[in-house]
Structure formats: structure tokens, C-alpha cells
Design brief:
The protein is an alpha/beta fold. It contains seven helices and seven strands, in the order αββαββαβαβαβαα.
Length: 216
């Protein structure tokens, strides 16, 4: 009997929880959180919306619109977090510094943060922001999974070549603990792989096995 990944139902019922400009405005630091990060215009909001089958995260043709930590509730113990987009030149320097300070405080001190999904535009991977996030994740021992977004903008062969190259570069510079995949929001490419990562970090994989055993 083929059963859906247990994270699917939770993602489909996800709801907006709150926005925080500072770490002390975040929800209670308990349970499981997975944060989504990406350079401005890397397709972060589109990926979040596709994974949750909703329009939770604001998408915009103007990069840098996400200026807060946005929390989305999956259940009483599990949340997704949309982090501010970085790297857009028209954002004022003081605002950039504010984002950076509070992002670092969130990433460095949040006990409930179980993993980080990093979005990279497949046409422009490994930007300075991406390298900083890779450095931080490895130094902090934080699990990271990379979505090479907008994979539909390239042929499959070209997209696969970029995947293999970025994979090799990451393994060489940061080790083999970081996972990576192709992803396309409009084509719904890579959803199952992403759900599997989320379920593992949120300790839902065992729950799925229990359901499977009871159904046999």
C-alpha cells in the first residue's frame, strides 16, 4: 500500500502564525522549526508556497520584499520559517544591517531550529550569500539542504550538470553532510525529495513507518 509522506498533510493545512522583526518576538523556542533562506529573488517564496499548496509567502517581482521572520504553523509542535531575503542593492544599508543582526541571532540561538533549506537560483548558484550560509551551517553543525530553484529555466541535461558541479564544489569545500537537489515550483519538480528532508528533520519519518505497519 503506497502511503503519502506524513509531512504532506501538515503542509497542506499550514497557516500563517506571526511575523517577527526581532528574535524576542519569535514564538516560544520549542518543538521543531525548519527555516527557508535564500538570496533575494532566488525563488524562496515560490518554493514555500508550492510545498505548502498555499500562498503563505508573499511573492514579488521586486527582490527583498521579505523583511521579517515569518512563521507558519504546521501543527502545535512544528513550524516553517521564511527568513528575510538578502543581497538586493536597493535595500538601505541600515535595514540590511538590522536583518543581518537578527538573522544571526535567530540562527545562532534558536534551539527549535532543526534544519535550514537554502534556495539557490540554478542560473546563479554559489553567490556570496550562499557561501556565508554554507560556512555558518557547517560551523554550527546545522543540517542544510539546498534547492537549486528555477530548474525549469534550463534543459534537464544542463540542470543536471549544474547540480553535479555545485555538489562537487560543496563536497570539496564543506564536506558531504549537505544535501542538494533540483527544484522547480511551476513544474512541481523535486517536491518528494524536499518533503522527505522536512519529514526527517521534524521527526515524522518514524510516524510514517508506524502508519505503514498498521496498514499492513
Amino acid at each position: 500500500m503506497q502511503l503519502k509522506n506524513p509531512i504532506l498533510g501538515l503542509c497542506q493545512q499550514s497557516t500563517f502564525m506571526l511575523s517577527a522583526a526581532k528574535v524576542d518576538q519569535c514564538p516560544d523556542d520549542e518543538g521543531f522549526e525548519v527555516a527557508f533562506a535564500g538570496r533575494s529573488n532566488a525563488g524562496k517564496s515560490s518554493a514555500l508556497n508550492t510545498l505548502t499548496h498555499a500562498s503563505l509567502a508573499r511573492t514579488s517581482k521586486t527582490p527583498g520584499r521579505t523583511q521579517l521572520l515569518n512563521f507558519f504553523k504546521l501543527d502545535d509542535d512544528r513550524r516553517l520559517v521564511d527568513l528575510p531575503g538578502y543581497g538586493y542593492a536597493k535595500v538601505p544599508i541600515p535595514l540590511k544591517l538590522h536583518w543581518q543582526r537578527h538573522l544571526e541571532a535567530y540562527l545562532g540561538g534558536r534551539e527549535s531550529l532543526k534544519g535550514l533549506i537554502l534556495m539557490m537560483d540554478i542560473r546563479h548558484p554559489m553567490t556570496d550569500f550562499d557561501l556565508l550560509m554554507l560556512d555558518w551551517a557547517v560551523a554550527a553543525g546545522m543540517p542544510m539542504h539546498i534547492l537549486l530553484t528555477k530548474a525549469d529555466k534550463l534543459t534537464y541535461g544542463a540542470a543536471k550538470n549544474v547540480l553535479l558541479k555545485v555538489q562537487a564544489d560543496i563536497r570539496k569545500g564543506w564536506g558531504d553532510a549537505i544535501s542538494i537537489q533540483l527544484f522547480s515550483a511551476p513544474k512541481r519538480m523535486g517536491l518528494e525529495d524536499a518533503y522527505t528532508v522536512l519529514a526527517g528533520w521534524m521527526e515524522l519519518a518514524d510516524k510514517g513507518a508506524e502508519i505503514a505497519q498498521s496498514a499492513e
